[in-house]
Amino acid sequence: MGSHKKKTKLVKPQEKVKSFVEPWPNLPKQLLNFIGSQYPDLMQSIVFSGVTKSWRAAPKQCSANTLLPWLEISDKDYYQSKTHQEHNFNISFKPGIYWWCCTNRRPWDNVWTHFHGCSHGSIVAGGKDPANYCLLVPGPRNAGRGIPPWDATIPFKFATLSFNPSNNCKILSVMVLTGCSYPLFVVCPPEYPLKWMKETSSLVDPNCSKRQLMSLTNAIGLKGKFYALSLQGTLAVIEEIESKFQVTKLSRSRAVPSVFSKHFTEYLIESNGEILLIFLISEQSSRKVDKVEVFKLQMDDLSWLKVDNLGDRTLFAGTKCCMSVTASQLGCRSNCVYFNEHTTNTWRLYEMESATIFPCFDYYGCQTKSPAWEEQIVENNFL
């Protein structure tokens, strides 16, 4: 028999993981300048991220009584598999008034390259070590609070705070959503020694046609409670009872857009003491937003009421954050929603009164990536 040479497969050298820097918060530059120079307290109004969901068509064999459609996290909501995303903090505050970086001499204090949550003016940040996180707290000097080491076997999807830490640090709790059923969420209470408390639940999502256990994807903290949305649009109220965090109420109604769509992005935000839910709706393709809807949470029965008028408020929805401002204070148009269309990286304006989407323009009448408006002249300095 003749000898056969075994073919060897050429293995290319392992490529280095590509990294790219993304500015955060990705709000209009003029708004960021305004926050930094005039009203740093507006940072209290920024909440972190939106969750992009896609609709799955109903199987024909399903009965008419089944709660449909089925929702799932869209692929574009995840980081690209071959990239390493870092962030550059995008606000320049007036020196000596508002600081956001830990600059202690310990080497891990000042390398926060990832932001995992923002609420009530504080940011949950992490560095290159996935086990280390820190809570960056606003103050006249560098401020921060350690967070216990994280178990790398548990997904760290999203973080939010239960209350404004500037009022009383003793009531501050950090909640992390895992996107899983077990554990459903993880909480770090403010009591020392700081530790993570894994909370599990056997609750079946009432809006899940497959009768699966609940998984949470979005949340906001307000007045000591957490209000979290499940993957299928069920609202869960989470409270601390006898030193344990647990789900105390579930909504009967489903938090979804009023129109059928292929994709939608949801934002939970507190505005003037209310919890608002913003939907950027893509009816045909995820590359274009066709409709915008705003709902308000009715606290008495946890139902969602569609809002047709925001009054003097203006909402900003970026790809990684959302914010509510008083329009007359900022000088921008009121009763509207500015949103970033991620595929073109340009801002659009949704006018609530006419239910119409318009492009944003700069001072020269050209479509722009950062809308411009006439800033108000502020006579009193509130800093």
What does it look like?
It is built from two helices and 26 strands. It has helices at 29-37, 327-330, and strands at 18-24, 46-48, 51-56, 70-73, 83-89, 114-119, 122-126, 133-136, 145-147, 158-161, 174-177, 185-188, 197-199, 216-222, 225-230, 235-241, 244-250, 263-271, 274-282, 291-298, 303-306, 313-317, 321-326, 336-341, 346-351, 356-359. The chain starts with 17 loop residues before the first strand and ends in a 24-residue tail after the last strand.
Briefly say what this structure is.
The chain has helices at 29-37, 327-330; strands at 18-24, 46-48, 51-56, 70-73, 83-89, 114-119, 122-126, 133-136, 145-147, 158-161, 174-177, 185-188, 197-199, 216-222, 225-230, 235-241, 244-250, 263-271, 274-282, 291-298, 303-306, 313-317, 321-326, 336-341, 346-351, 356-359.
